[in-house]
Amino acid sequence: MKSPIWKVAVLCMLMVAAGSAWAETHEVEVRNLGSDGKRMVFEPALVEAAPGDTVRFVWKDMGHNAATYHPDNRGKPALVPSGAKVWDSGFKQPGDTFEVTLETEGAHHYFCLPHEGMGMVGIIAVGDAGKGPGLEAVERADLPDRAKVRFRALHDQLGN
Ligand SMILES: [Cu+2]
Fold first, then answer.
1. Is 31 within 8 Å of 57 (Cβ atoms)?
2. Longest dimension (CA), the chain
3. Where are the beta strands (DSSP E) in 1-61?
4. How many A from CA of 106 to the centre of ligand 1?
5. Domains observed in the chain
6. Is this structure's pTM higher than 0.85?
7. Region at 14 (left for phi over 0; alpha for psi -120 to 50; beta for the rest)
8. CA separation for the pair 31, 113 (Å, rounded)
9. Which residues are close to ligand 1, an ion, with C-beta < 5 A?
10. What percentage of the chain's residues is helix, strand, coil (to nearest 5)?
11. CB 88 within 8 A of CB 73
12. pLDDT tens figures, 91-122
């Protein structure tokens, strides 16, 4: 009369536990107004992830996208680790989401096309952020002043 259901339940719990140990999902809100009162923000603007983790962007407002700094994205400067995935969410509606899973270690810099000039940028640091690109590359790149200001603060948090 032994039911196999408890075995299935235990197996399921083990699989969930193992899965969460291997890969996490980090949520980033895409907002007109941040909780700190700043306009046009990714919140949090800095995500520290492990290789294989997923970042899920959640649109709270419309008129924004999220795209990696890379020449393939409108000729922008390359501010991702070499060999990194290049992505662009496209424009979304409130409630929409976009997920990207990153494997390449380093600092993946990204921007919102309409609001880059307002400093609407962010970093996904995968594994060892010291693998770069670091703040030096940001300073050398052709970026709007307010994007650089935001990146300086984020690199300050990262310590590189
Ligand atoms: Cu935006």
1. no
2. 71
3. 25-33, 39-43, 46-49, 54-59
4. 24
5. 24-158 (2.60.40.420)
6. yes
7. alpha
8. 14
9. 40, 64, 112, 115, 120
10. 30, 30, 45
11. yes
12. 999 999 999 999 999 999 999 999 999 999 99
